[in-house]
Amino acid sequence: MGSTTSKAEEETTAQEAAGYQLLEDIPDNLLVQHNNIMETNNDTSDNAPTQEVEPPLYGDGEGATIKIDDAIEAIGMGKFQRRVLWAAGLCFTADSTEIMLLSFLSLTLQSEWGLTPNQTASMTACVFAGSLVGTLTFGKLGDHWGRRPTFLLACLCISVFGVLTAFATDYASLLGIRFMVGFGVGGITVPFDVFAEFLPTHARGKHLLIIEYFWTAGSMMTPLFAYWTLHDSWRFFVILCALPCVMSGILGAFLCPESPRWLVSVGRDEEAMQILRSAAATNGLNPDDVFKADVKLKDEHVEKTSNFTDLVSKKWRKISILLWITWIGYAIGYYGTVQTVTRVFDAGAVDGAEAGGTPEFDYKSIFISASAEIFGLVVVIQTIDTIGRVYSQVMSFLIGGIFVFTLGMISSTGSTNVAALTALAFVARACMMAGSCSTWVTTAELYSTEIRTSGHSVANALGRCGAFASPYLVRTSIPISSVGGIMLAINVVTAFSAFHLPETKGTEMGHVEEENTTTASISEAEVPPIV
Asked: In this structure, what are the phi and psi dihedrals at residue 107, rounded to the nearest 5 degrees?
């Protein structure tokens, strides 16, 4: 009997030793989070307090290191990210106003300067041509020169040439100036990626969509600016549209530091840690508690300099091609929808204007359709972290295509039912906004840090090619019913391409294809409570 008892005690001791060995192999920050979860779950009383889990503390041992992803998680969400949001968001507002003003400026100058329809379309297309060149230039600069200086340079370019538009004296000078505005607009992916790189994983999907409200604000501000100023001076109108970028540049210079992810990727770990400590303090945390004095960032320096050919390497080829098709399709769909709505509601604006006068736009209908983007954003914010990025894109593009097709078909019959046309335009723009926002989020999350702005910029550049083609599709003599059919076909192809992209919901940035580590695969059931 004593022998049996001794044998059982030996087995129990061996099991305990094995259990403690397992615990030694688990990172400290995972154990901290596990204990917090277990304590919360064990308190089943009705009066149990609901508290957020404290961020893990790092640097308890000599020479402790942490990954940059863990460090971003540790600083939490708060005032720091809101500052970066305003700086990056106003740049999105600037992009929106500089693009949307073309719907008004092109028709106004067609009447005032006696331009042909093709010249009017070229005025819009030259901005997208400049954006194509700019996005490739700024994307490369963002990966090699740094996110912050590239962001500020893009703001400077948009601001200067946006204001100079007001001083254009003829068609040729206007085209040159607007090309440079487009060149600056090409850098819009950089502030978006900067903001994405400061966000913890759990907050990334929602907050990368919140920044899109700034784009929508620009879409709604532009018809208001046009309503207030176009009858007096189109020059004052374009100056107003340049102001958001001036504000973005000022805020970016004072509130937006360099991305720690980028700094780590180029071996500047100490600078990255200083920024992370400062961000933690701004968010109301004690940086010495979050990061102990001895903690260092894990060396993730990428020796190989990234270039555009990496996007078609074996690792990235499939993702890149699918993204490029999606971006081209969404750009034609989004900008084509915006211009289709303007064409439907302002078909006779130029013809009805007095010689050399300002066209009479249907500002009310255009404003209502622009406000649809708010609805689209509200919907996709609810779906992007539930059904995921992929299905959010697929549903949005398919429904948007159907509604813009219906809008074109009904408009071609000569219908004067403004309410029905406005409703169709509302849903079409809401869906195209939801789909395009999801595509932006997915693109930033798919690529790894050393190639992120280059990859995002190439996708954006190809999207600008689609945008470049959109005015020739919508603004020319092609029947509006045929325009609707073409737009539906493009949206179907876009949805098909997006459907085959990897899902990035809940993953670390740029780690979609990586295998789950042993640590990540340990379930709560496999880890005994730590007493």
From this structure: -75, -35
Element (DSSP H or E) covering residue 297: strand 296-297
How many other CB atoms are there within 10 angstroms of residue 296's CB atom? 15
Helix axes 418-446, 452-474, angle to 10 degrees: 160
Nearest alpha-carbon partner for 204 in 39, 312, 85? 85
Give 507's pLDDT tier (boundaries 50, 70, 90). Answer: confident
Contact 185, 127 (CB under 8 A): yes
Sequential DSSP letters for 210-269: HTHHHHHHHHHHHHHHHHHHTTT-HHHHHHHHHHHHHHHHHHHHHH----HHHHHHTT-H
Q: From 449, 339, 323, 490, select the one nearest 390 (Cα to Cα).
A: 323
Which residues touch 31 (CB under 8 Å, ≥6 apart)? 23, 527, 530
Q: Where are the alpha helices (DSSP H) in 113-170?
A: 117-144, 147-164
Return d(Cα 146, Cα 58) in angstroms, integer.
27
265 φ/ψ angles, rounded to the nearest 5 degrees: -65, -20
Distance of CA 174 to the CA centre of its chain: 30
Q: What is the pTM of this model?
A: 0.70
CB under 8 Å to 448, separation ≥6 — which residues? 509, 510, 511
> Which sign does the torsion angle of CA 145, 146, 149, 153 carry?
positive
Which residues fall within 8 angstroms of residue 447, CB to CB, at 6 or more apart? Answer: 316, 319, 454, 455, 456, 510
Q: Using alpha carbons, select from 271, 299, 290, 311 the residue that is nearest to residue 200.
A: 290
- State which H helix or E strand residue 377 sits in: helix 363-383
Distance between CA atoms of 101 and 390, rounded to whole angstroms?
31
H or E element: which one contains 480? helix 480-499
CA distance 107 to 100: 12
**More confident call, 398 vs 460:** 398
Helix (H/G/I), strand (E/B), else coil: 38: helix
27: three-class secondary structure by DSSP: coil
Which residue matches tokens 């219906």? 406
> How many degrees, rounded to 5, is the angle at CA 151 between CA 145 and CA 156?
115
Residue 421 scores a pLDDT above 80? yes
**What's the one-letter identity of residue 64?**
A
Q: What is the mean pLDDT of the chain?
A: 80
296 beta partners: 65
Dihedral over Cα of 63, 68, 73, 75: its sign? positive
Nearest to 261 by CA among 342, 152, 143: 143
Q: Which pLDDT tens digit goes with each residue over 123-144? A: 888 888 898 899 888 988 888 8
Q: What whole-number distance in Å separates Cα of residue 148 and Cα of residue 191?
A: 8
Most distant CA pair in the chain: distance in Å?
Answer: 112
Q: For Cα atoms 244, 247, 250, give the angle at the middle one, nearest 5 degrees.
A: 155
